[in-house]
Amino acid sequence: MNKTFKYLLAFILIISFLTAGNTALNRHGVEKSSNGVEITIDYNQVWEMAQRRNMGLIEILKEFKNAGATGIFFKEQTSIDLKNQGLAYIKTGSELLTEGIFPQFDGDLNRYYTYFITPFPEVHDRLQKHLGAKIGNIETITDTGEGLFIVGCPVVTDTMLGSIGLGFPEEGFAAAEKTGLNIIPQIRSWPEAKDAGAVKAVFEQLKDAKNISTVAFNDKDIPGFPGLLPHLEGEVKALGVPAAIIEFFPQKGLSGLIHSLDKNAVRLHSIGSDEMSGISRDRALDRYTLAVSERNVRVLYLRLFTRLDGQDWLQENLSFIDELTSGLEQKGFVLGAARPFSGIPFSRFSVGLLGLGVIAAGLLLLERIGINRNLAILGVLAPLGWVGLLFLNHQLARKLMALTSVIIFPTLAVITTVRPEGRGVFSSILTLLRTSLISVGGALLAVGMMAGTDFLLKIDQFLGVKFGILVPLLLIPLFIIAKDGRGVDRLREILNSTVQYKWAFLIGILGLVGIVLILRSGNDTGLVSGLEIRFRSVLNDILVVRPRTKEFLIGHPLMLLSYYLGTKGKRLPLVTLGAIGQVSLVNTFEHFHTPLVVSLLRTVNGLWLGIIIGVVVIYIYKLLMKLEKRYLNA
Asked: Whose CA is closest to 161, among 116, 193, 122?
C-alpha cells in the first residue's frame, strides 16, 4: 500500500470520527434533556392498604405523593377486581333462578348467562359498554326496585371472564385528580378483538380523564393486534400521551404502533409480583435506580412491599419511595410525567461517511496482515457497494455496517499493537491505552450509525451482538499467525504439532470463557450469582458506574501481560483472552438504550482498574519466574 493511499484512508477515518463525534454529542444532548421520571404506585395495593388501615383513599394517596410518588398505575379491572372491591357481585342465571333472588325478573333471566349486579349506576354503565363491546349480546336491567343494576352476558369460562378488562375505577380516577397524581392506565386485550367499535369503547372512559400521562398495555398482544392497529393508533393519538414500553416484556404489535405514533413512547420498568415477595429493599432500590440511570427508563411502576415481618406496611413503603426519589434527584432527574425523547438529527450522507470510515479501517486491517494485492480496487468497489446498499435498504445497511465496525476495530486494535518481543511495564500500559482508543473509535462509528430514537427506546436493536463478540476472538489469533508473513506454514505447524495437556486445558478454558461471554452478552441475569450481584452493587456505590467484570478482571490485565511478554512461543491463547477486554469494550457501546455517558464512564473505570490489576499480575509473574529460577538453580 503506497503512502498516498494510506494518507487518504487516514483522512477518511478522521472525517468519519468527527461525524460520529457530532452525532454522539447530539445524542447526549437528547438523553440529558429527557430527565423526567414518573414514579407510579399500584392502585389495587393502595386501595387494599387504605381498607386495612381504615383510611380514606385520598388521605393515603396524599401520603404517597408527599413521599415522592407522581402517578397511579391502574390495571384495567376484571370481574375479580370488581368483586374484591365491592363494586359488583357475580351470579350465573341458573343461580339467580334457583335462589329466587329477583323473582320479578324470572321471565327475563337467562340461565345460560352470567350476571353482574351492582348498586353503582356508573359501574353499571361501564359494564354495559365493555361487556357489550368485548362479548356482545348483553342483557341489562337498569333498576331492580332495590337500588341494584344488572348486566348479563353469555356464559364464558371463568378464566376468560377473569382476564377480560372491564374499565377503570371511577373512584380511583377521581381520587387521582383530587390529589394531583397522574394516571397511567394499563389496557387489557380481549379474545377475538375484531370490532373497531370495541376499541373506541375501551378508550371512551380515558378521554374524560384529565391527568393521564402515559398509556400501557397488559398482555403479550396489544389490543386489536393485528387487524385493529390503525384504530388503536387513532385512539392513543387522541389521548396525546406516550405509550409505555415495558422492559423485558415484548408485546406483539407494540413496535409498529410506536412507529405510527412517531415514536411517542417511554420505557417502563417494574419488579414482578413474584420477585417482590423475596427481594430485599436494597436490591429493589438498585433495580429501579439502575433502570433509570443506565437504561433510559422513564416510568417506574412500584409494587409495594407486603412481607415486612411486623414493620409498619405504610411507613416502610413511604420510606422506600422517599429514598428512591431522593437518590434519583441527586443524579439529576426530575420527578414528574415522563416525556419521550426528541429526535436525534442524522442523515444518509452522515451515515455514508461513517460507513466509509469502517471501510477504511477494514483496508488498513488487510494491509496489516499482508494482503496488499488489489487493495486499491477493493477501495473503490467497497464504497460503491456501501452507497448502493444505503439507498436500497437504509436501515439494514446501517445495522450491517455497525456490525462490521465492531468486528473490524477491536481486531485492528489488537493486530496493530501486538508484537513478538515484550515491552516494559510503562510501555505496555501506553500500548493498552492506544489499543483501547482504536476500539473506542469503532464503537463511536457504530453509535453514530445507530443514532435514532428507535434504538434509544429499544424498539429496534443492534444486529448480531453475539456474532460481533465471537468473530473478533476467532480472527485475532488467525491474523496474528498470518501477520508474520508465513501464515500458512505456521498454521500448518500448529495443526500438526503435538498438543500437551496443559495447552489442551488452556484451550478448553478459552472455549468455556467464550461460551460464557456470549451467553452473558445481553441483559439476562440468569447466569449471574447472588454473590456477583452484591459485588456489582458495591462497585456501583463506589464508582458511580460499574465497570464490566470481563474487562477489568480478565481482558485488560491479560492484554497488559501479553504486551509485557510478547507473542513469542505459545502465548497466542493469552493474547486471545486479553482481546476479550477490547471486544467487551466495544460491546458496551452496542447497548444503545444505555446513556452514552454511562458507557463512557464504564469503559474508563474498566481501563484504570484493569491496568492496576494487570500491573499486579505482571509483578506476580516476575516473582514466580524468580522463584522458579532459584528452584531450578538449587
From this structure: 116
